[in-house]
## 1
Amino acid sequence: MEQPSLISTKQFVRELADGQAVDSVFVVREQTRRQKKNGETFLKLRLGDRSGDVEAVVWDGVDGCIDCTKTGEVVRVAGPYSVDSRYGATLTVRTVRAAAPEEYEPADLREASPIPLEQMLSDLDDLIATVQQPHLRELLERLLGPDSRTGRSWRLAPAAKRYHQAYRHGLLEHCLSVAQGVSAMAALFPGIDRDVAVTGALLHDIGKIEAYALVGESYDLTDAGRLEGEIPLGYYRVRRAIESIEGFPAGTAQAVVHIVLAHHGKLEHGSPVTPCTREATLVHMIDNLGGTLGSFDRIEKTLADGERWSGFDRALAGSAYFAPPEQDAAQTRAA
């Protein structure tokens, strides 16, 4: 009797249930070596597909699977999936090997933005067109224009390695949403230079085009990202572009690069300076909000249908709750 293909029986992360026996293909999004109490090595993996991520652990036979479980590799994994009230969901790997191309559809493994790319690009053009200061408009066109090398890279890059919009076009999605939020909020508070704030919002994470790179089917930090960091990389790129524009006002230049340098908000969060202007403060606040809400999007993908609470999430420093639809809530109250 002919066996069904693995592609037709793909088990997605979102569909896994406590006690389920798993035998499916996933992409390795992170590999970490750890030590047991007896000194032996075990592996912690973060496996994923387009529906989300799951933590996995390899207790035995580590030496034979280190190479095939590097970040970005596509693997076929078998083992039990369990959900512990204290430690959360874990896939205990019994067997793992490199997946053959015919065993999976690449599209099943790749997360994607919920917003159509054409819509984001149209919204980006519309927003840039509202920037009135000519030097800022030229800066945005040089760095984010579709014909520039930087602009093409910026459109393709992820916004993060894991916590929010960690997929192709994720940086475009994130920076655009931050800039749109900044644009809307700037009208509510006096004294904010909207053009500076919007420009800074669009450019605040531009260093990520050098800090992250596609490795196999996943994203990881580059050497430059680890050694220099995305903020210094972004600052240098923006500063260099400003210096190439004749007559760029010094005060405006300082205001924009300050946003790039200060957007993490605190020294302990990686910013070399804290926000010292209205514009930098606004961008930091909206950026932080966008990243946090992006974490809710990431977490929700991993929950089974009907599940309301997530486990502990490091990005939120707690659990996430997703209220039931109004129809379900009304039925619950009636009961």
## 2
Amino acid sequence: MKNYILSELDSEALDRLCRRPRLDYSAILQQIEPVLSNVESQGDAAIRHYTRKFDGIEPDEIYIDPMAVEVSLTDEVRKAIDTAIANVERFHIEQMTGDLEVQTMPGITCSRVCRPVERVGLYIPGGSAPLPSTAIMLGVPAAAAGCPTIVLATPPDQNGRVPDAVIYVARRIGAAGVLIAGGAQAIAALAWGTESVPAVDKIFGPGNQYVTAAKMALQNSGAMVSIDMPAGPSEVLVIAGPDADPDFVAADLLSQAEHGPDSQVVLVTLPGFDMAKLEQSLGQQLEQLPRSEIARQALRHSFSLAADRIEEAIAFSNRYAPEHLIINLEDATSWSDEIMHAGSVFLGPWTPESLGDYASGTNHTLPTYGYARMYSGVSLSSFQKSITFQEATRDGLLRLGPTVETLASLEGLEAHRKAVSIRRDKITSES
């Protein structure tokens, strides 16, 4: 990790530190365009072709009913998944909001109601390890929101199957089916639909650059599909106070670094923190990690920043807008109100980011790449849409009509004005 002193950096230098590596989606979009087009026109046949080409697998089925698949999990794994589901469900159900009704003036009533997104597609990355945690984080709020159709998509394992843990979660959330495919072809299948796979209205889930590019392309296509949020490599920013345990801090940095070589970890230290012990602990823990080489690559483009005061550290964090923010201070909660831009925040020495990744209850599908400045993480509302209603009485129309007529005339929209005046004239003539 490169080391900097905050007080020695000007605004331009800080902006450079906050700037994530540029992702050239134009080149990627050119690569995936034939995939998206072929899935649209050829359906299941294209899915089978690309799964064979990219994964070297040709599964017996590409879309399965999770209830028809036997799963074999140890009691320990089953209990862990059940606990995570319970906590995530409890936290997300509490986010349910009631319908809103307001009388904005006498005779004018406005209301707002929430409805679930009817069909949602949940992309669950595969690759080197199954990710049932992502199935939990996306599937549980989808079910809690009442989405009638939930479809999962995940790459096949080396045997052409979906991992039992992912199937188990799919069963628990009442998924309609699981598409055994990954990459851009899976996103295209969810967006366009195929002979086997139902088209969805909104696609959720993280993935590699091809998955991200496919989501971005298809939300601007004739598929008429929306996505959860833009996505980039995973990241964490840790603020370490003088009493922070270097072993804890090293573990937190590495827990993000092992995600991928393009992950970024940032450490902001306060006076008194033992950087020498941190470096020692990083080296020792790295040697014990199965994904140590991946973590090393991530650390090479990560950095640490020495701040003089907690206020400066938090100001930099808000400027950086991290996906995950860990405040390793004994009095971390007292600084909560100062956090303006972060995907999810972990307070105090006993709250590793891993808790939120798996089972605390908050969602781990979060804005990366600085998008925490304007996006929220996935929540119950991500699986809902709202509809507004309004109703005017005769008296309400008489009261509000002149205002609308004036504004419509101001904008030169005569038909708008007449839609009001014709009613007002009718009421007046009947009086």
## 3
Amino acid sequence: MRKYGSIFLLLLLTACATKPAFKLENIDHGLNPRNAVHSEHAKGHQVLWGGTILSSHNFKDHTRLEVLAYPIDDQGRLNTDAEPLGRFFALAPGYLETAKYQKNRWISLTGTFIGMENGSVGGASYAFPVIETSQLHLWEQESLNNNDPKIHFGIGVLFH
């Protein structure tokens, strides 16, 4: 009986895990996409950024995500009610399935700030901060909207 109780407890705790399990050593929490544009000495800094994916494109050896950034806490949770912090490019080594990493998906990621890339947004020139990603986490919409535990007890039937 203890074996089943331990398994149930493990499953219950797993259901509560709604934030990414990032390795956060050496993260520069003061560097964000907005101030990276003006930070000449930030190259090589480790960052924790996130936001909503605007586009994803596969290239020969990497995938580039264009992300509209939002403030992010020290654990990787996005503040989607806040004012956006601008756009950035996230370069992920290898191939990411663009059907999964598609427009309007929410993402948190860690990586190395490698500099700026000139581009355009709606015909206007735009300087994109660029990071090489090391860790990615795609959010489910429900886990962004509510910090309450996702545990419910009761008897009955639930329909979605």
## 4
Amino acid sequence: MKYNNLSNTGLLVSELCFGAMTFGGVGRWTAIGQQTQDDANTLIKIALDHGINFFDNANAYSGGLAEEIMGSALKQLNVQRDLVVIATKLLARMGTGANQLGLSRAHIYDSVDASLKRLQLDHIDLLYIHGVDKITPLEETMRGLEDVVRSGKVRYIGVCNQPAWRVVKANAIASKMGWTSFKALQYYYAIASRDIEHNIIPMAEEEGLSVLPWSPLAGGFLSGKFDRNITEAGNSRRDSFDFPPLDKEKAYDIIDVMREIANERSVSVAQVALKWVMSQKAVDSTIIGAKTEAQLKDNLNTVNWELIDTEMTVLNEISAQPLPYPNWMVESQTANRVIKFPTE
């Protein structure tokens, strides 16, 4: 297991991050996973034994039950607190009250306290805002995040599912005010869904921020269970929860190529999909989830091999997406912008 710097913080996180979305399985989360406390204890122990030090959660997962299960697992496994990096998120509705959702200072305070209680922790290592709150100004959100950092309840902050311009604007506000800025970007990124390469990843590289992909297997579609002949696997969340969206016909083409590589390498299709994401230079940790020990161990084996250049080339070509505007115009207008120095 390799460890990478989270942005420029000096905080080292494992190249694979274990996510808790499958824990609990309450309400709409039933299709994602229904892992019990004993299941979670086993999976987290396996992750720790294989060198993972980074664990991801959200207050929204099963209405907080996933946080409760993870917190109990850390206690029951006697995990030393300073050996793990615990991340969680806030934004989603957590009750019926008018203010029990969003990114107001009030909801930030309340959510952090509630997450700490469920996780049985005295601080959160990395707190993400889970998306956009259109009625709360960014200044208000950044002030709320700064307050929970200064309180000692949160150490670093990150952002999910927001346009690049909002991230840059938020960090500009933080810089102007001397507040804590976002260091981590958690976004949907898979070989069959490369949308963030057009704006999010260039922004991350320019600003020196870490990209931490979620759903690198596209909700299980790239796990090897699906192809043109198998459109319902019978044991995949995609069968009843067809999310996140992707172009399935294009994904089938990608799966065909990944299966060839997997067979040649004696690895799973899922490992090829994961390894492609992990190999992208802006990516510092890739979030995986699991329902079973076998699935988790297979994912973990991805760290033990590398894609060679010819394999990366064919995977990049089959998964390439057309540039959206204005990106294609930028490419066209800057194609000849080369500084040439006179030679003697």
